[in-house]
Amino acid sequence: MDVAHVNPFIDSFMNVMPQLGFTDVRKGGLGVKGQELNCSGVIILVGIVGTLKGNVVYLIDEENAKKIASTMMMGMPVEQLDDMARSALSELSNMLTATAATGFANLGVNIDISTPTLLSGENVSVKMSSKQVLSLQLLANDVPVEVLISFES
Amino acid sequence: MAVRVVIVDDSPFSIAVIRNILEENGFEVVGEAGSLEEVKEVIAAAQPDLVTMDMTLPGTDGLECTRAVHAINPNIKVIVISSMMDEEILKEAKENNVSGYIQKPVDAEELLGTIQRVIAYEEIFQTLEDAYFEVFKETLKDALNRMTKTLLTYKSEYEMKEDFESRGIVVIVGIIGKFSGRLMIDLSKETAHALVAAMMKKEPSSINEITAALAEFTNIVAGNACSILNRKNKAFGLRLAPPSVMHGDRMSISHASFKTMSAAADTHYGEVMLNVGFRRGEDKWM
């Protein structure tokens, strides 16, 4: 796992989120996690193929997912994660990963991304393909989004 | 069969120029329209494959007319032909599902090239759309048969239009190529346990062993299916992201924003659901 691989994801978040109405975007902590992760809330998985091969998972807890969806929908109140809200979050993961892919391309690393798959649940065990997973914490208007990056070596 | 085109423009001169280029090159011009009302009428009556769309029209604009075309039939391709072209308008055109954009004065080669690209993209997607589901169903059946010597029976097939609750374990594989998509295999923990035991010819010692075997099984199904599809048409260029496995209680999986197909199969070990689909996406025209 190359820690430099998180940079395009940070840049992407910093670029994309302000366009969606988030005025305050920050980078939180970075850590390394094992292959098997326990997650609750909204889980969005995007596949990656190219010079690098792997998956990215975006994790947002349910209440925060509603806040993000609401901001993305011009402040429309989001009481529950309905179709519209879920679709907004899927689209967000697509935008973030596509922008990160452009960032990788600028580093000479060509990757393409799959369509996102969105799940939600409590105590969901997520097993990614690489032994080590980079966990990147990002905040938009103080709402934390955890990005799990798993590339096969 | 000739590609059938409707020309939307309010200038008889422009219509004559475009019609000329199209007819000289084997296209069939099946109608003309110069206002929103005419667009609705002509498109509904003629059901063309393709529309050329002017941007400035009396009382309306090309984007509103494009939406009207797609409200009648979302599969009709719209190519804008306009004297105006800037980044903002291109972006708006894309957002309104325009498939191509060329600037007036119309250059015959540019128009023909754009139409060919749009039609070819659509045809390639259609080939994939027509083929993929049977191929994935067949490879799942085949992989199960080769790895466990058992058969499966598909008991239902449907387009996935709603979220569903996972049976317990889901394996997801992202697919990437000219069109991107995903494959999911969903099954209960009990089914997974029995299936993996049969594949390994021994009791799995941990949930870890089960998820690892399922990941590999799904990878084989997806890999075999994509190889078959790539052989059908090299342009698909389908490749796989590594499988991810998720399990938990009350895991709800959202339906995709594009059409995906599901098949529920009865196996010797319990029910297994296959879901797969590809997004039509956008040809990279800008």
Automatic annotation (TrEMBL), chain A:
The keyword Cell cycle does not apply. Coiled coil: none annotated. It comes from the Bacteria. Residues 42-132 form the Chemotaxis phosphatase CheX-like domain. It holds the Pfam family CheX. The keyword Phosphoprotein does not apply. Keywords: Chemotaxis. SUPFAM superfamilies: CheC-like. PANTHER family: CHEY-P PHOSPHATASE CHEX. This is Chemotaxis protein CheX. The gene is cheX.
UniProtKB/TrEMBL annotation, chain B:
SMART domains: REC. Residues 4-119 form the Response regulatory domain. It holds the Pfam family CheX. InterPro entries: Bact_response_regulator, CheC-like_sf, CheX-like_dom, CheY-like_superfamily, Sig_transdc_resp-reg_receiver. Keywords: Chemotaxis, Phosphoprotein, Two-component regulatory system. This is Two-component system response regulator. The modification 4-aspartylphosphate is found at residue 54.
